[in-house]
Design brief:
The structure holds two protein chains of two kinds. By secondary structure, chain A is of the alpha/beta class. Chain A is 38% helix and 13% strand. Chain A has a single domain, classed as Amidase signature (AS) domain (Amidase signature (AS) enzymes), CATH 3.90.1300.10. An eleven-stranded mixed β-sheet of chain A has the order 1-3-2-4-6-5-10-11-9-7-8, sandwiched between helices. In chain A, helix 4 links the parallel strand 2 and strand 3. Chain B is an alpha+beta fold. Chain B folds into three domains: 284 residues, no CATH class; 100 residues, no CATH class; 59 residues, Arc Repressor Mutant, subunit A, CATH 1.10.10. In chain B, 41% of the residues lie in helices and 19% in strands. Chain B is built from 16 helices and 16 strands. In chain B, the strands form four sheets. Chain B has a nine-stranded mixed β-sheet with strand order 2-6-7-10-1-11-12-13-14. The chains are: A alpha/beta, B alpha+beta. At the A-B interface, helix 9 of A face loops of B.
Chain lengths: 486, 498
């Protein structure tokens, strides 16, 4: 039995029944990583020594009959933009090549308190900016389904590692689709929770009002288990929501009867790959056959979601990334003439092209004389999109659509054309703009046998409904069970 | 080069003194005062705000802007700022927010300062000042909250610049006045009043020497009668009242001279060099930073209820102008005394505590406004650093009133108290300073003094009663101030009439 190929809930079950030992699970995962990660490139940093020690400690506690956390002994990958005490956190940037945080992000603390095993840090687009993980300063991650193709991004390492059975689950972050699009490209389950449901404390900020951490897992049940562990109010994050968080596993019911699901016309129109479209519509049919009520409706404002998103995200990024100035953190140029030159050289040399492009865009959007035309206008669009979602949720329990216009594309195919890359976010950014939860569940394969994920969008704090729909679909299909041949 | 500059300066100074301007000018001044709030912890983390720790000992990942950290607003910051707003008659915003002010500087680890831009906590208030017996109202445009930056320390030996982040994230309020002041004197009065209000409400400890009160000064001039304001210049970060007053005087003169010489004022930020006594241009408006303000996405808006605001309003302490009135009405102090005593909370508290021991309020006031103020100035002490307790001043006054020591001896005892903090009764005993009222002993002195001053005796005989005063003075000198002056007076008159 290849332990690393099992789901979280399967391993949890085996561990609690003492049929397998934690160190066996961890060893199986590291064995897999050693075998294939030179091909996939999911990891930036391995945490092997520390992980083996935790595995030993947790097993000892188990043997002593001590009570353990909900993720006891489960190997996890952490996207490299979440701070891990004593473990490098690079954001896949030369700027933070040697940054070792003195503290754990709240989510990392939570995973540790539930006795998960931190296996290492996952590759990503630099500072989470990109949709293919090609913007990493260190390496490119490849799609386990086709090594010539990208895993999506920015949480490409997190998605690929779960798809390739290198870890049992991983955490990613999603600012405009960075969990959901790679989940779709890699054929795994990915959830972007409601803004405020998971603490951002310790997540190196890209766009503060849009960023959200979430799980990438092998199936919907695993997603609910991880979600239980990471959600919750955190007094260290003022944008964290102080509400009652339910037990998400209670939503894992195989029943969608009477649920109203809307499909935005604009999501299945022009620009959508035919294979993706038919997989998503087939999924809708499936849900309908299971008793859901499916309806098409219109979300005309979504047309403006991408420009509004790039204005807001870049504006916030230009400020968030200003601290990387060569003075206190990260890379400092070795040659400079004065203070201003030190700033210029350090930032020119330390940041990659895409990061610089977005910083410049954001700086411009906030500049005197342009603020109203760009940033302020984007905020108005944001309000309109929120209103549009509010109206939709007055009628529907959730919204169904594609995650991305295409399946995974080839490495290098879009990296020279940023605008085309941005358009790949067309179905995902509106969810961040409105702060809503979005769940991606595998729903098919294209003609090249590349995975397709459907996206379910819910009301704020409506993760339960999404998990219910996703779980029901999964129980009545087998797309989540297929594995890449690598 | 230096010589030429000095020569130019002198010639300007002459012209200013002679006042030979073509026109009369009005000076227009507005202030932006930054006050450090008296919170124990910083604005967004739990680090101490205490002044003077070893460099970089009062900081954490949050106030040093470590990647991934988030700010959590200290509720006391809002409370203190609202108190300041209420005490200066401001309207308090029910909805306000924080904004990021973006700029690069090594003392600012996040490369943005969290401040407030278009929705400050307080706006539209005023402070009344008394100038030449008239009340003048100075408008307060707004009060907003913001965080302080760190400090750069230049290593003069190695040529390196180092950063101390202890002050990073210490909460400030910025109090922006309307351009309502018309002289350096009005600026001084406004600052004194503002400082008193902040002290009374315990919003800030206002320790100038620790930089907890600083001001940016905006100055412009215009011909009298002109409605439009002249072009203004701004001098940043002045940290003493004296420097502010000097800067206003010098900058307004510079501007008048510039206009008189046919020049134009350039809108600019200028650096005031208090040692040299002049300002020089730092950057003009064209070169000014674009701070790219935008709403701070990590901190939700600040929403205040009526109940919250009203509770703070009711909890405000007695404010300086109310206390001033009370000192006139219930202590019978002259208005002048009351105004000066109430200018500092610490001074006023000391006064009241002393009065509680039952000694004459006016005598206390005399001591505090006279010898005490002089000695504190000499020793560069702040009003909270009076080196002895109120009871000791009351004892000193009682010693005089009971005739145990004379006024001139009391001055010496007071100085001693200032140095050692000792009880005046003990000082008097230890040093044998009691008034001599022994007639036998004083008669000897009188005899000696009268015989030594025949001219005064002749004057007296010729009807000049004043000469008795002179003789009493001589007798006091002879007794080293310890003679009972009333008794000496009586004995001298008796002796002369013999």
């Amino acid at each position: 039995m290849d332990l690393n190929k099992l789901t979280l809930h399967e391993i949890k079950n085996l561990i609690s029944k003492k049929e397998v030992k934690v160190d066996e699970v961890v060893a199986a995962c590291y064995g897999r990583i050693e075998n294939i990660d030179d091909k996939i490139g999911s990891f930036l940093t391995l945490n092997k020594e520390d992980a083996l020690r935790s595995a030993f400690d947790i097993q000892k506690k188990l043997d002593n009959g001590e009570k353990l956390g909900s993720l006891a002994g489960i190997p996890a990958g952490i996207k490299d933009n979440m701070c891990t005490e004593g473990l490098k956190t690079t954001c896949a940037s030369k700027m933070l090549e040697n940054f070792i945080p003195p503290y754990d992000a709240t989510v990392v603390k939570k995973l540790k308190s539930q006795d998960a095993i931190i296996m290492g840090k996952m590759n990503m687009d630099e500072f989470a900016m990109g949709g293919s993980t090609e913007n990493s300063y260190f390496k490119k991650t490849r799609n386990p389904w086709d090594l010539e193709r990208v895993p999506g991004g920015s949480s490409g390492g997190s998605a690929a590692s779960v798809a390739a059975d290198e870890v049992i689950f991983s955490l990613g972050s999603d600012t405009g689709g960075s969990i959901r699009q790679p989940a779709s490209f890699c054929g795994v389950v990915g959830l972007k929770p409601t803004y405020g449901a998971v603490s951002r404390y310790g997540l190196v900020a890209f766009a503060s009002s849009l960023d959200q951490i979430g799980p990438l897992t092998k199936d919907v049940e695993d997603c609910a288990i991880v979600l239980n562990a990471i959600t919750g109010y955190d007094k260290m994050d003022s944008t964290s929501a102080n509400v009652k968080y339910p037990d998400y596993t209670a939503s894992l019911v195989n029943d969608v009867k009477g649920l109203k699901i809307g499909i935005p016309k604009e999501f299945i129109g022009e620009g959508l790959n035919e294979d993706v479209k038919s997989a998503v519509l087939a999924a809708a049919k499936k849900l309908e056959s299971l008793g859901a009520i499916i309806e098409e409706f219109s979300m005309p404002m979504n047309e403006y979601a991408i420009p509004a998103y790039y204005m807001i995200a870049c504006a916030e990024a230009s400020s968030n990334l200003a601290r990387f100035d060569g003075i206190k953190y990260g890379y400092r140029a070795s040659n400079y003439t004065d203070l201003l030159d030190l700033y210029k050289q350090s930032r020119s040399e330390g940041f990659g092209d895409e990061v610089k492009r977005r910083i410049m865009l954001g700086t411009y959007a906030l500049s005197a004389g342009y603020y109203d035309a760009y940033y302020n206008k984007a905020l108005k669009v944001r309000t309109l999109i929120m209103n549009e979602f509010d109206n939709a949720f007055a009628k529907y329990d959730c919204i169904l659509g594609p995650t991305a216009p295409t399946t995974a594309y080839k490495l290098g195919e879009k990296s020279e054309n940023p605008l085309e890359m941005y358009l790949g976010d067309i179905y995902t950014v509106c969810v961040n703009i409105a702060g809503l939860p979005g769940l991606v569940v595998p729903c098919g394969f294209d003609s090249k046998d590349l995975p397709i994920g459907m996206q379910l969008i819910g009301k704020a704090f409506g993760e339960g409904t999404l998990l219910r729909v996703g779980y029901t679909f999964e129980q009545n299909s087998d797309f989540s069970k297929r594995k890449p041949s690598i | 080069m230096n010589r030429i500059l000095i020569l130019v300066k002198e010639s300007l100074a002459f012209r200013i003194e002679r006042g030979d301007y073509k026109m009369n000018y009005e000076i227009v001044i507005g202030l932006e005062v930054h006050a450090e709030l008296a919170t124990k912890s910083k604005m967004y983390c739990s680090c101490s705000t205490e002044f003077g720790g070893d460099p970089n000992t009062h900081c954490c990942p949050i106030c040093t802007g470590m990647p991934g950290v988030l700010p959590v607003l200290n509720e006391k910051v809002v409370k203190y700022a609202v108190k300041a707003g209420l005490a200066t008659n401001c309207e308090i915003a029910h909805y306000s927010k924080q904004d990021r002010k973006n700029y690069f500087y090594p003392d600012l680890p996040k490369a943005f300062q969290t401040s407030q831009y278009d929705l400050p906590l307080c706006k539209g208030g005023y402070i009344d000042i008394e100038t030449d017996g008239n009340t003048k109202r100075i408008g307060i445009t707004r009060i907003h909250i913001e965080e302080d930056a760190g400090k750069l320390i230049h290593d003069e030996w190695g040529g390196d610049t180092m950063v101390d982040y202890n002050r990073c994230g210490v909460p400030l309020i910025e109090i922006v006045s309307e351009p309502d002041m018309r002289s350096a004197e009005e600026v001084r009065l406004y600052l004194e009043k503002l400082k008193a209000i902040l002290e009374y409400t315990e919003v800030s400890d206002c320790k100038m020497q620790e930089g907890s009160l600083r001001a940016d000064v905006n100055v412009s001039v215009r011909p009298f009668g002109q409605k439009e304001f002249g072009t203004r210049t701004e001098m940043k970060n002045l940290n003493s009242f004296k420097a502010i007053v000097r800067a206003v005087e010098a900058e307004s003169k510079r501007q008048i001279e510039e206009i008189e010489d046919g020049g134009k004022i350039v809108q600019a930020t200028r650096r005031w060099d208090d040692n040299k006594g002049y300002s020089y241009a730092m950057r003009s408006k064209e070169e000014a930073n674009d701070y790219r303000y935008f709403p701070e996405p990590d901190i939700p808006p600040i929403i205040l209820s009526d109940e919250y605001i009203e509770k703070l309003r009711l909890g405000l302490p007695e404010l300086p102008h109310v206390r001033e009135k009370r000192y006139v009405e219930s202590f019978g102090l002259p208005e002048y005394d009351a105004a000066i005593l109430t200018n500092s909370k610490y001074f006023a508290n000391f006064f009241e505590s002393t009065a509680a021991f039952g000694v004459s309020p006016k005598l206390i006031s005399n001591w505090m406004m006279g010898d005490m103020s002089r000695l504190m100035k000499d020793k560069e002490l702040e009003p909270d650093q009076i080196p002895f307790e109120p009871e000791k001043l009351s004892k000193l006054i009682a010693l005089i009133e009971k005739g145990i020591i004379s006024g001139s001896i009391a001055k010496k005892v007071f100085e001693k108290m200032f140095e050692t903090g000792e009880d005046p009764e003990i000082i008097v005993k230890k040093e044998g300073l009691e008034v001599v009222s022994d007639e036998g002993a004083l008669k000897e002195t009188v005899k000696k003094v009268v015989e030594a001053n025949p001219q005064s005796v002749a004057d007296y005989k010729a009807g000049k009663a004043k000469s008795v005063g002179f003789l009493v003075g001589q007798a006091m000198k002879e007794t080293k101030g310890k003679g009972n002056p009333q008794l000496l007076n009586k004995l001298i008159v008796e002796y002369l009439n013999k």
